Protein backbone atom coordinates (compact mmCIF):
# COMPACT_ATOMS: atom_id res chain seq x y z
CA UNK A 1 0.00 0.00 0.00
CA UNK A 2 1.60 3.28 -1.09
CA UNK A 3 1.06 6.77 0.29
CA UNK A 4 0.70 9.94 -1.78
CA UNK A 5 3.86 12.04 -2.17
CA UNK A 6 4.20 15.42 -0.48
CA UNK A 7 3.48 17.40 -3.64
CA UNK A 8 0.19 15.53 -4.11
CA UNK A 9 -0.78 16.15 -0.49
CA UNK A 10 -0.03 19.88 -0.68
CA UNK A 11 -2.01 20.10 -3.93
CA UNK A 12 -5.07 18.86 -2.03
CA UNK A 13 -4.76 21.84 0.30
CA UNK A 14 -3.50 21.72 3.87
CA UNK A 15 -4.48 24.04 6.69
CA UNK A 16 -2.13 25.31 9.39
CA UNK A 17 1.14 24.70 7.52
CA UNK A 18 4.31 26.79 7.92
CA UNK A 19 5.40 28.93 4.98
CA UNK A 20 9.08 28.06 4.57
CA UNK A 21 11.20 30.69 2.79
CA UNK A 22 13.80 28.17 1.50
CA UNK A 23 12.50 25.11 -0.37
CA UNK A 24 15.99 23.57 -0.65
CA UNK A 25 16.35 23.66 3.13
CA UNK A 26 12.98 21.89 3.42
CA UNK A 27 14.11 19.16 1.01
CA UNK A 28 17.35 18.72 2.96
CA UNK A 29 15.52 18.37 6.30
CA UNK A 30 12.99 15.90 4.87
CA UNK A 31 15.77 13.85 3.25
CA UNK A 32 17.62 13.70 6.56
CA UNK A 33 14.48 12.59 8.43
CA UNK A 34 13.86 9.79 5.92
CA UNK A 35 17.24 8.24 6.80
CA UNK A 36 16.69 8.24 10.58
CA UNK A 37 15.53 5.13 12.50
CA UNK A 38 11.89 4.83 13.60
CA UNK A 39 10.99 6.42 16.93
CA UNK A 40 8.41 3.69 17.57
CA UNK A 41 7.79 0.31 16.00
CA UNK A 42 4.82 -0.86 13.97
CA UNK A 43 4.23 -3.78 16.35
CA UNK A 44 3.92 -1.34 19.27
CA UNK A 45 1.33 0.64 17.29
CA UNK A 46 -0.63 -2.58 16.73
CA UNK A 47 -0.52 -3.33 20.47
CA UNK A 48 -1.95 0.12 21.22
CA UNK A 49 -4.65 -0.43 18.60
CA UNK A 50 -5.68 -3.65 20.37
CA UNK A 51 -5.86 -1.76 23.68
CA UNK A 52 -8.00 1.02 22.14
CA UNK A 53 -10.25 -1.68 20.65
CA UNK A 54 -10.93 -2.73 24.26
CA UNK A 55 -11.77 0.92 25.05
CA UNK A 56 -14.30 0.98 22.20
CA UNK A 57 -15.95 -2.16 23.65
CA UNK A 58 -16.17 -0.66 27.15
CA UNK A 59 -13.48 -2.99 28.49
CA UNK A 60 -10.79 -0.33 29.13
CA UNK A 61 -10.40 3.42 29.74
CA UNK A 62 -7.95 5.69 27.93
CA UNK A 63 -5.89 8.34 29.75
CA UNK A 64 -4.07 10.65 27.34
CA UNK A 65 -2.18 13.61 28.74
CA UNK A 66 0.80 15.91 28.55
CA UNK A 67 1.93 19.33 27.41
CA UNK A 68 -0.10 21.62 25.21
CA UNK A 69 3.12 22.21 23.26
CA UNK A 70 6.43 20.58 24.13
CA UNK A 71 9.58 22.68 23.90
CA UNK A 72 13.14 21.65 23.11
CA UNK A 73 14.25 23.30 26.36
CA UNK A 74 11.74 21.13 28.25
CA UNK A 75 13.46 17.86 27.37
CA UNK A 76 15.06 17.28 30.76
CA UNK A 77 14.97 14.24 33.01
CA UNK A 78 13.09 16.16 35.71
CA UNK A 79 10.46 17.52 33.33
CA UNK A 80 9.77 14.19 31.62
CA UNK A 81 9.75 12.31 34.95
CA UNK A 82 7.27 14.76 36.51
CA UNK A 83 4.82 14.40 33.61
CA UNK A 84 5.12 10.61 33.65
CA UNK A 85 4.70 10.54 37.43
CA UNK A 86 1.43 12.48 37.44
CA UNK A 87 0.01 10.35 34.61
CA UNK A 88 0.91 7.15 36.48
CA UNK A 89 -0.65 8.53 39.66
CA UNK A 90 -3.86 9.40 37.81
CA UNK A 91 -3.94 5.98 36.12
CA UNK A 92 -3.80 4.06 39.43
CA UNK A 93 -6.82 5.94 40.78
CA UNK A 94 -8.79 5.54 37.53
CA UNK A 95 -7.93 1.84 37.21
CA UNK A 96 -9.24 1.12 40.69
CA UNK A 97 -12.43 3.13 40.15
CA UNK A 98 -13.24 1.80 36.69
CA UNK A 99 -12.25 -1.81 37.46
CA UNK A 100 -10.90 -2.02 33.91
CA UNK A 101 -7.38 -1.49 32.52
CA UNK A 102 -6.34 2.11 31.88
CA UNK A 103 -4.52 2.63 28.58
CA UNK A 104 -1.75 5.16 29.23
CA UNK A 105 -0.85 7.46 26.33
CA UNK A 106 1.40 10.48 26.69
CA UNK A 107 0.81 13.67 24.77
CA UNK A 108 4.57 13.79 24.34
CA UNK A 109 7.65 12.93 22.23
CA UNK A 110 6.25 14.76 19.20
CA UNK A 111 3.81 17.46 20.38
CA UNK A 112 5.96 20.32 19.08
CA UNK A 113 3.65 21.93 16.49
CA UNK A 114 0.50 23.94 17.22
CA UNK A 115 -2.35 25.21 15.02
CA UNK A 116 -3.07 28.91 15.52
CA UNK A 117 -6.21 30.99 15.03
CA UNK A 118 -4.20 33.69 13.23
CA UNK A 119 -1.10 33.54 11.02
CA UNK A 120 0.25 36.78 12.51
CA UNK A 121 0.71 38.22 16.00
CA UNK A 122 0.85 41.92 16.87
CA UNK A 123 2.49 43.39 19.98
CA UNK A 124 2.98 47.10 20.61
CA UNK A 125 2.37 47.90 16.96
CA UNK A 126 4.84 45.25 15.69
CA UNK A 127 3.39 42.38 13.61
CA UNK A 128 5.29 39.09 13.17
CA UNK A 129 4.37 35.52 12.18
CA UNK A 130 2.61 33.64 15.00
CA UNK A 131 4.56 31.12 17.07
CA UNK A 132 3.57 27.69 15.74
CA UNK A 133 5.53 25.55 18.18
CA UNK A 134 9.23 24.70 18.40
CA UNK A 135 8.79 22.41 15.37
CA UNK A 136 8.27 25.50 13.22
CA UNK A 137 9.75 28.68 14.73
CA UNK A 138 10.93 30.29 17.96
CA UNK A 139 8.85 31.70 20.82
CA UNK A 140 10.93 34.91 21.12
CA UNK A 141 9.09 37.84 19.56
CA UNK A 142 11.79 38.83 17.05
CA UNK A 143 11.78 38.72 13.22
CA UNK A 144 14.68 36.22 13.22
CA UNK A 145 13.05 33.87 15.75
CA UNK A 146 9.68 33.80 14.01
CA UNK A 147 11.00 32.69 10.58
CA UNK A 148 9.92 29.05 9.98
CA UNK A 149 13.03 26.84 9.91
CA UNK A 150 12.76 23.28 8.53
CA UNK A 151 15.90 22.21 10.43
CA UNK A 152 13.68 22.34 13.51
CA UNK A 153 11.93 19.19 12.24
CA UNK A 154 15.19 17.29 12.71
CA UNK A 155 15.40 18.82 16.19
CA UNK A 156 11.86 17.50 16.84
CA UNK A 157 13.07 14.01 15.96
CA UNK A 158 16.11 14.24 18.25
CA UNK A 159 14.12 15.69 21.16
CA UNK A 160 11.41 13.03 20.74
CA UNK A 161 14.04 10.27 20.70
CA UNK A 162 15.55 11.61 23.95
CA UNK A 163 12.10 11.81 25.57
CA UNK A 164 11.19 8.26 24.54
CA UNK A 165 14.53 6.95 25.85
CA UNK A 166 13.80 8.52 29.23
CA UNK A 167 10.22 7.21 29.31
CA UNK A 168 11.27 3.66 28.43
CA UNK A 169 13.96 3.72 31.12
CA UNK A 170 11.52 4.98 33.76
CA UNK A 171 8.67 2.55 33.02
CA UNK A 172 10.91 -0.53 32.89
CA UNK A 173 13.43 0.47 35.58
CA UNK A 174 11.21 0.38 38.66
CA UNK A 175 9.92 3.95 38.62
CA UNK A 176 6.42 2.79 37.64
CA UNK A 177 6.15 0.22 40.45
CA UNK A 178 2.53 0.19 41.59
CA UNK A 179 3.29 0.40 45.31
CA UNK A 180 5.57 3.39 44.77
CA UNK A 181 2.97 5.20 42.66
CA UNK A 182 0.30 4.53 45.27
CA UNK A 183 2.63 5.91 47.97
CA UNK A 184 2.88 9.15 45.98
CA UNK A 185 -0.93 9.34 45.94
CA UNK A 186 -1.05 8.64 49.67
CA UNK A 187 1.38 11.54 50.21
CA UNK A 188 -0.85 13.78 48.08
CA UNK A 189 -3.89 12.86 50.21
CA UNK A 190 -2.02 13.49 53.46
CA UNK A 191 -0.24 16.70 52.52
CA UNK A 192 -2.74 18.53 50.32
CA UNK A 193 -5.81 20.21 51.86
CA UNK A 194 -7.74 19.18 48.75
CA UNK A 195 -6.35 15.63 48.89
CA UNK A 196 -8.00 14.79 52.21
CA UNK A 197 -11.36 14.65 50.44
CA UNK A 198 -10.12 11.55 48.61
CA UNK A 199 -8.80 9.66 51.62
CA UNK A 200 -11.51 6.97 51.37
CA UNK A 201 -10.53 5.96 47.83
CA UNK A 202 -6.82 5.99 48.69
CA UNK A 203 -7.50 3.79 51.72
CA UNK A 204 -9.46 1.32 49.61
CA UNK A 205 -6.57 1.02 47.15
CA UNK A 206 -4.19 0.53 50.09
CA UNK A 207 -6.31 -2.34 51.42
CA UNK A 208 -6.48 -3.97 47.98
CA UNK A 209 -2.69 -3.80 47.62
CA UNK A 210 -2.16 -5.17 51.14
CA UNK A 211 -4.51 -8.08 50.34
CA UNK A 212 -2.61 -8.87 47.14
CA UNK A 213 0.66 -8.84 49.07
CA UNK A 214 -0.78 -11.09 51.78
CA UNK A 215 -1.74 -13.80 49.30
CA UNK A 216 1.64 -13.60 47.59
CA UNK A 217 0.42 -12.04 44.36
CA UNK A 218 3.25 -10.16 42.65
CA UNK A 219 2.58 -10.04 38.89
CA UNK A 220 4.99 -8.29 36.54
CA UNK A 221 2.28 -5.66 35.94
CA UNK A 222 2.92 -4.39 39.48
CA UNK A 223 6.45 -3.38 38.53
CA UNK A 224 6.26 -1.99 35.00
CA UNK A 225 3.64 -0.44 32.72
CA UNK A 226 2.95 -0.07 29.03
CA UNK A 227 3.17 3.57 28.01
CA UNK A 228 2.59 4.94 24.53
CA UNK A 229 3.31 8.24 22.79
CA UNK A 230 0.99 10.45 20.74
CA UNK A 231 0.84 13.88 19.12
CA UNK A 232 -1.15 15.91 16.63
CA UNK A 233 -0.03 15.05 13.09
CA UNK A 234 0.22 18.64 11.91
CA UNK A 235 3.35 19.46 9.88
CA UNK A 236 3.04 17.34 6.74
CA UNK A 237 6.78 17.28 5.98
CA UNK A 238 7.57 15.66 9.33
CA UNK A 239 4.74 13.11 9.38
CA UNK A 240 5.33 12.11 5.74
CA UNK A 241 9.07 11.68 6.25
CA UNK A 242 8.43 9.54 9.33
CA UNK A 243 6.01 7.24 7.51
CA UNK A 244 7.66 3.93 6.66
CA UNK A 245 6.67 0.56 5.19
CA UNK A 246 6.58 -2.13 7.89
CA UNK A 247 8.77 -5.09 6.96
CA UNK A 248 6.29 -7.58 8.48
CA UNK A 249 3.12 -6.44 6.76
CA UNK A 250 4.30 -4.16 3.92
CA UNK A 251 1.87 -1.56 5.28
CA UNK A 252 2.70 2.11 6.01
CA UNK A 253 3.02 3.28 9.62
CA UNK A 254 3.81 6.77 10.91
CA UNK A 255 6.71 5.82 13.18
CA UNK A 256 6.94 9.28 14.81
CA UNK A 257 4.47 8.14 17.51
CA UNK A 258 2.22 5.25 18.44
CA UNK A 259 -0.98 7.26 17.96
CA UNK A 260 -1.47 10.45 15.96
CA UNK A 261 -4.53 12.65 15.69
CA UNK A 262 -6.10 15.20 13.35
CA UNK A 263 -7.09 18.49 14.95
CA UNK A 264 -10.37 20.37 14.83
CA UNK A 265 -8.82 22.86 12.37
CA UNK A 266 -7.39 20.27 9.96
CA UNK A 267 -10.12 17.61 9.65
CA UNK A 268 -11.36 18.74 6.22
CA UNK A 269 -12.46 15.56 4.43
CA UNK A 270 -10.95 16.43 1.05
CA UNK A 271 -7.66 17.86 2.28
CA UNK A 272 -4.17 16.60 3.06
CA UNK A 273 -4.30 15.58 6.74
CA UNK A 274 -7.27 13.24 6.34
CA UNK A 275 -5.74 11.89 3.11
CA UNK A 276 -2.36 11.11 4.71
CA UNK A 277 -3.79 9.52 7.86
CA UNK A 278 -6.23 7.44 5.84
CA UNK A 279 -3.20 5.52 4.50
CA UNK A 280 -1.26 4.81 7.71
CA UNK A 281 -1.99 1.84 9.98
CA UNK A 282 -1.49 3.51 13.37
CA UNK A 283 -4.44 4.05 15.68
CA UNK A 284 -5.63 7.58 14.90
CA UNK A 285 -7.79 10.19 16.57
CA UNK A 286 -9.90 13.07 15.30
CA UNK A 287 -10.85 16.10 17.39
CA UNK A 288 -14.56 16.96 17.08
CA UNK A 289 -15.73 20.40 18.19
CA UNK A 290 -19.17 22.02 18.49
CA UNK A 291 -19.49 22.63 14.72
CA UNK A 292 -19.28 18.88 13.98
CA UNK A 293 -22.48 17.37 12.56
CA UNK A 294 -23.33 13.66 12.77
CA UNK A 295 -22.82 13.49 8.99
CA UNK A 296 -19.30 14.90 9.45
CA UNK A 297 -18.51 12.19 11.98
CA UNK A 298 -19.90 9.44 9.75
CA UNK A 299 -17.95 10.74 6.74
CA UNK A 300 -14.72 10.90 8.72
CA UNK A 301 -15.23 7.34 9.95
CA UNK A 302 -15.90 6.12 6.40
CA UNK A 303 -12.75 7.83 5.14
CA UNK A 304 -10.39 6.95 7.99
CA UNK A 305 -11.71 3.53 9.01
CA UNK A 306 -13.49 2.06 5.96
CA UNK A 307 -13.12 -1.51 7.30
CA UNK A 308 -14.72 -0.47 10.64
CA UNK A 309 -11.78 -1.92 12.53
CA UNK A 310 -12.00 -1.70 16.33
CA UNK A 311 -9.18 0.35 17.86
CA UNK A 312 -8.38 2.15 14.64
CA UNK A 313 -10.41 5.34 15.25
CA UNK A 314 -10.92 7.49 18.35
CA UNK A 315 -13.24 10.49 18.38
CA UNK A 316 -11.90 13.09 20.83
CA UNK A 317 -14.71 15.54 21.62
CA UNK A 318 -13.98 19.15 22.61
CA UNK A 319 -17.26 21.01 22.94
CA UNK A 320 -16.88 23.22 26.00
CA UNK A 321 -18.77 22.79 29.27
CA UNK A 322 -21.76 24.81 28.04
CA UNK A 323 -22.26 22.81 24.85
CA UNK A 324 -21.36 19.19 25.60
CA UNK A 325 -24.80 18.10 26.83
CA UNK A 326 -26.57 19.52 23.78
CA UNK A 327 -24.00 18.78 21.09
CA UNK A 328 -22.70 15.32 21.91
CA UNK A 329 -25.87 13.14 22.06
CA UNK A 330 -26.66 13.41 18.32
CA UNK A 331 -23.12 12.46 17.38
CA UNK A 332 -22.95 9.45 19.67
CA UNK A 333 -26.45 8.25 18.74
CA UNK A 334 -25.91 8.37 14.97
CA UNK A 335 -22.40 6.87 15.09
CA UNK A 336 -23.68 4.07 17.37
CA UNK A 337 -26.76 3.48 15.18
CA UNK A 338 -24.46 2.95 12.18
CA UNK A 339 -22.61 0.24 14.10
CA UNK A 340 -19.31 2.10 13.89
CA UNK A 341 -16.44 0.93 16.08
CA UNK A 342 -14.99 4.05 17.68
CA UNK A 343 -13.62 4.95 21.08
CA UNK A 344 -15.15 8.12 22.58
CA UNK A 345 -12.72 10.30 24.53
CA UNK A 346 -13.36 13.67 26.21
CA UNK A 347 -10.99 16.62 25.78
CA UNK A 348 -12.34 19.02 28.45
CA UNK A 349 -9.61 21.59 27.87
CA UNK A 350 -9.88 23.15 24.41
CA UNK A 351 -13.50 24.24 24.55
CA UNK A 352 -13.04 26.07 27.85
CA UNK A 353 -10.23 28.56 27.18
CA UNK A 354 -10.72 32.26 27.88
CA UNK A 355 -8.54 35.32 28.39
CA UNK A 356 -8.16 36.58 31.94
CA UNK A 357 -8.23 40.31 32.68
CA UNK A 358 -4.44 40.11 33.03
CA UNK A 359 -4.14 38.95 29.41
CA UNK A 360 -3.21 35.35 30.25
CA UNK A 361 -5.07 32.52 28.47
CA UNK A 362 -6.59 30.32 31.14
CA UNK A 363 -9.27 27.73 31.94
CA UNK A 364 -11.50 27.26 34.96
CA UNK A 365 -11.03 23.94 36.73
CA UNK A 366 -14.79 23.82 37.37
CA UNK A 367 -15.47 24.08 33.61
CA UNK A 368 -13.06 21.21 32.95
CA UNK A 369 -14.86 19.05 35.52
CA UNK A 370 -18.27 20.10 34.21
CA UNK A 371 -17.41 19.09 30.67
CA UNK A 372 -16.20 15.68 31.82
CA UNK A 373 -19.39 15.27 33.88
CA UNK A 374 -21.47 16.23 30.82
CA UNK A 375 -19.55 13.68 28.74
CA UNK A 376 -20.31 10.96 31.31
CA UNK A 377 -23.96 12.07 31.61
CA UNK A 378 -24.52 11.82 27.84
CA UNK A 379 -22.95 8.37 27.59
CA UNK A 380 -24.87 7.12 30.63
CA UNK A 381 -28.16 8.33 29.12
CA UNK A 382 -27.40 6.57 25.81
CA UNK A 383 -26.03 3.37 27.31
CA UNK A 384 -22.64 3.91 25.67
CA UNK A 385 -19.15 3.86 27.22
CA UNK A 386 -17.34 7.11 28.16
CA UNK A 387 -14.02 5.80 26.91
CA UNK A 388 -11.42 8.19 28.17
CA UNK A 389 -9.85 11.56 28.92
CA UNK A 390 -7.50 13.73 26.83
CA UNK A 391 -5.94 16.40 29.06
CA UNK A 392 -3.30 19.11 28.80
CA UNK A 393 -1.33 18.83 32.03
CA UNK A 394 2.08 19.06 33.62
CA UNK A 395 3.64 17.44 36.64
CA UNK A 396 4.87 20.83 37.87
CA UNK A 397 3.24 23.33 40.23
CA UNK A 398 2.44 25.92 37.57
CA UNK A 399 -0.31 28.54 37.82
CA UNK A 400 -2.07 28.39 34.44
CA UNK A 401 -5.65 27.24 35.16
CA UNK A 402 -7.81 28.94 37.81
CA UNK A 403 -9.77 27.16 40.53
CA UNK A 404 -9.35 23.66 41.88
CA UNK A 405 -8.68 22.77 45.50
CA UNK A 406 -5.81 25.26 45.69
CA UNK A 407 -8.33 27.92 44.62
CA UNK A 408 -5.97 29.62 42.17
CA UNK A 409 -7.29 33.05 41.20
CA UNK A 410 -6.75 35.09 38.04
CA UNK A 411 -4.37 37.29 40.02
CA UNK A 412 -2.21 34.18 40.69
CA UNK A 413 -1.66 33.34 37.01
CA UNK A 414 1.52 35.42 36.72
CA UNK A 415 3.22 33.57 39.60
CA UNK A 416 4.34 30.61 37.49
CA UNK A 417 2.82 30.70 34.01
CA UNK A 418 5.19 28.60 31.89
CA UNK A 419 3.16 27.27 28.95
CA UNK A 420 4.20 28.65 25.56
CA UNK A 421 0.71 28.11 24.22
CA UNK A 422 -2.39 26.92 26.10
CA UNK A 423 -2.85 26.66 29.90
CA UNK A 424 -2.30 23.25 31.52
CA UNK A 425 -3.58 21.68 34.71
CA UNK A 426 -0.84 21.58 37.33
CA UNK A 427 0.13 18.54 39.42
CA UNK A 428 -2.49 19.05 42.16
CA UNK A 429 -5.30 19.91 39.71
CA UNK A 430 -4.45 16.82 37.63
CA UNK A 431 -4.64 14.51 40.64
CA UNK A 432 -7.85 16.14 41.80
CA UNK A 433 -9.30 15.59 38.32
CA UNK A 434 -8.39 11.90 38.54
CA UNK A 435 -10.13 11.44 41.90
CA UNK A 436 -13.25 13.32 40.69
CA UNK A 437 -13.39 11.27 37.47
CA UNK A 438 -12.95 8.14 39.59
CA UNK A 439 -16.23 9.06 41.33
CA UNK A 440 -17.89 9.47 37.90
CA UNK A 441 -16.52 6.13 36.69
CA UNK A 442 -17.96 4.31 39.69
CA UNK A 443 -21.39 5.61 38.75
CA UNK A 444 -20.86 4.82 35.06
From TrEMBL:
It comes from the Bacteria. Pfam families: DAHP_synth_2 (PF01474). Keywords: Amino-acid biosynthesis, Aromatic amino acid biosynthesis, Transferase. InterPro entries: Aldolase_TIM, DAHP_synth_2. It is an enzyme of class 2 (transferase). The keyword Transferase applies. Pathway: Metabolic intermediate biosynthesis; chorismate biosynthesis; chorismate from D-erythrose 4-phosphate and phosphoenolpyruvate: step 1/7. Its EC number is 2.5.1.54. It catalyses: D-erythrose 4-phosphate + phosphoenolpyruvate + H2O = 7-phospho-2-dehydro-3-deoxy-D-arabino-heptonate + phosphate. One of its GO terms (molecular function) is 3-deoxy-7-phosphoheptulonate synthase activity. Belongs to the class-II DAHP synthase family. This is Phospho-2-dehydro-3-deoxyheptonate aldolase. The lineage of its organism: Bacteria, Bacillati, Actinomycetota, Actinomycetes, Propionibacteriales.
Amino acid sequence: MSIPDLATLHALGAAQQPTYPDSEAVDAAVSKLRTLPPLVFAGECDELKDKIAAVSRGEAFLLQGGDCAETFAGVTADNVRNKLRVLLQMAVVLTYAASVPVVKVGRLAGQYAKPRSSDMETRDGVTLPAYRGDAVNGFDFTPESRVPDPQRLVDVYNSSAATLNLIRAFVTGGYADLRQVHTWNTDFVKESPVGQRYEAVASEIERALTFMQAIGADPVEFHRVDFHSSHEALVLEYEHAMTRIDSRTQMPYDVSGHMVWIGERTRQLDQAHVELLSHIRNPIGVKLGPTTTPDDALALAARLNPLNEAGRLTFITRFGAGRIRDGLPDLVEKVTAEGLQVAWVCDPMHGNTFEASSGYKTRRFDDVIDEVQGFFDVHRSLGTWPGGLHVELTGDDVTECVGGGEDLLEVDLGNRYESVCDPRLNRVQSLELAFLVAEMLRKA
